[in-house]
Design a protein that fits this description.
By secondary structure, this protein is α/β, with parallel strands linked by helices. It has one domain: Rossmann fold (3-Layer(aba) Sandwich), CATH 3.40.50. 39% of the residues lie in helices and 18% in strands. The protein is built from eight helices and nine strands. α3 links the parallel β3 and β4. α2 crosses α6. The radius of gyration is 17 Å and the shape is globular. The model has no long low-confidence stretch (mean pLDDT 94).
Length: 218
Amino acid sequence: MLMHQLLLHGAMRQPDKTAFRWVDRNTELTYSEAVEQMERFSGALHYLGIAKRERVTIFAHNSLDYLIAMFACWRIGAIASLVPVQFADDLEYYLDDHQPSVVIYTQEQAEQVSRAAAQVRSVRHLVCMEGAQIGSESLPALLAAGFPTPIDPGNELAITHLSYTAGTSGRPKGVCLMHEPTMKAANCIAERLQLTLEDSSFGATPLSGTYQLVGNLL
């Protein structure tokens, strides 16, 4: 199974059940709402010319937009490339390392993003989650446009997720995950914890880490 198909299966089984809840803002998305937003987001990425295997940097604090951005990348076969916001001063290093085509960010990171992206030739687009800024696209406007989505590439062995090590023995290094092995790991954790469809899990750590993906989100 592909990771984004979890939302599709959830929407078919229980469309009105809560899929994600953002505790700090007291907001949530049902499975059907999450699928709709994933499709809109993936259509926006497709409109920007993002193709499968291209890297999409997400540089932001935890939010529902962050979650949907990851699922949208997986939906079109792009690689969600996650950079922790605490490493803002080294953002150019991370961008140069994974060579993204687009950087999605929150407005408080605008200065660091603009400066770092200007030094990395692969970056074609900047997208601000809160709205248009000089030199960047508006995520709300892109989502509202309702651009069509491409055909799902459907490759379980495609690289889909890139995050970074802590860098304790040198510069942080990118770690890549594929759909099928990641889903197997998530299923193993769920079986060991005896999780059921009625359970919820709470994620208190940054979404930029692989724990949130394998141990909580999936």
